[in-house]
Protein: Peroxidase
Organism: Rhynchospora pubera
Amino acid sequence: MSRDFLPIVYSCLVFAILSPFSAESALTVGFYSTTCPSAETTVRSAITTALNGANGPAASLIRLHFHDCFVRGCDASVLLDASPANPSPENNPVFNMRGLDLIDAAKTAVEAICPGVVSCADILAFAARDAFNLLVPGGSLYDVPAGRRDGNVSSFLEAVANLPAPTMNLTQLETTFAAKGFSLKELIALSGAHSIGQAHCSSFQSRLYPYDSTQIDPTFAQMLQGKCPQNATVNGVVTQDFVTPDSLDVQYYNNIVNNKVLLFSDWSLRTDPIALTTIVSYSTDNLLNILWSVGI
């Protein structure tokens, strides 16, 4: 993080120390209804204004929230800056984390009306919900239970150990997600977030030289080779979904069926008959139905 983030990080740490509720407290919808009634609408306004219709940064907020929750739980530890004692935090540049400035803007807006009340972790959860609303065709606001306590530990090594890698096969993905309590069906539903956003060439380039026509559509592979030359000195960025790149929808599942996904981890979902049946059924469904059906 830049120095501009330091006041926000400090307030996160102060909240972690002074917050009256414990990490084990049950989360509740409307948690700030008496202490900061405008918290959620303030976050939504700040995020909407900052995004100004840009879908790329909105996708980054969803990814940021996923990274935060998958390492130490949804505790905003991904926001913590490097320090002499912890020189390599979860937001290490290797992860290309984006959206931190948007959370900063939302936190600043909330602090202006309710100083020291709303946790950074809850703000990140609210912001991800608001980004989701902007990306789903027609929009969709859902209730976000709140009451998270901010963490004060952030570890790059923990992030590497916990976060799923783009090179994982299905067995590895199932193990990684099962460790967090997710079933195969939930893993597939959550993977639908790859309907938006971008991926660096380095994340999938090994699939292109040479490419396996049983894993990746030849025409698609050749198009990607044009965007990610084998000996390029710059690590390019490619849209995850070339059909509806700005919409969070079920096109991702159609892309898997047609062997038109960038990451090996996404393609590997189709290697299990049960998983493939689920993917095919999702490809003709509505994303909101899918998420609600698995309780996400």
Notes: The chain has 13 helices and two strands. Strands lie at 198-200, 237-239.
